[in-house]
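User: Please predict structures.

Assistant: First:
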Amino acid sequence: MLKIKVPGHRVLVKPDSVEKVSPGGIVIARPGQGDKLEYMGTDRGTVVQVGPMCWRNFDYQSPDWKPWCKEGDRVIFARYSGKTIKHPETEEQFFIMNDEDIQVVLEEEASA
């Protein structure tokens, strides 16, 4: 099985599903739209892998420095950023993008 390895300051993100579902549960097809365009229209996903140099150019010598996000984090990224890639064996779609394209990390609030 081939493994995708992210180099440098790149981040591998699994985009959220782009299927539109009606309130009754019916999947609504969007004719004339290719997979790439559909996925490029999304701006949310889950971080799958973080390159070893991510965010190193942002004051990483500070003792309090840490990467902005990690594997498993839910993020919002710049729409139309990065490149859409498919795993060569599983055909699963991902985005490979620069670390600076991650704009927001979504965190669960603790219940009071």
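Second:
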Amino acid sequence: MRMIKFLGVIGLAVALVAVPALARDIVLTPPSGANDILIVAVEQWVIKEARWTKDGTPIGDIIKELVGPVKSSIDIGFGARFGTVKIDDREIRPARPQDANDILIVAEKEWVIKEAFWTRDGARIGDSIKELAGQRFLSIHVLSTTTKVEVKATVVPTLTEWGLIALAVLLAGGMGYMIYRRRPALRPAAP
């Protein structure tokens, strides 16, 4: 019984410490002159929902024009171009509520970013955004306010290969210890 409690405490500690450390938001501030962010995925992905929001709170219904498959890239405008979205070079300008100041785009399942660029009217500005390349995402949140423009993407927490190995060793060790405690014949005789 003590072993089960011990493993429970270890599991709770991992859940409370490791998962919040892995689940993080990447917040980026674009360079001056940029008015779009171009994101290219490794493979095709599907937009499950897209919503106008005001300071993170959804406003109105899902933007139906944006829901559907994305073959490779999405280009989201901000600042003067806020409300303009390009999906695979097809420009979409959905009707925007007056009080909306950001847009939230949620994928059907996690997807991997191949590369991302700041752009001005479709022309790339500088090198790729290194913080986004290779990351696994479920959602992109583009904020566009009068004082600051940020791109916020939620990273999906996953275990690395070494994390999986450590978890397997921990589970196997716990199982071995439980078997050792329950079978008195396996223990050496007391002197």
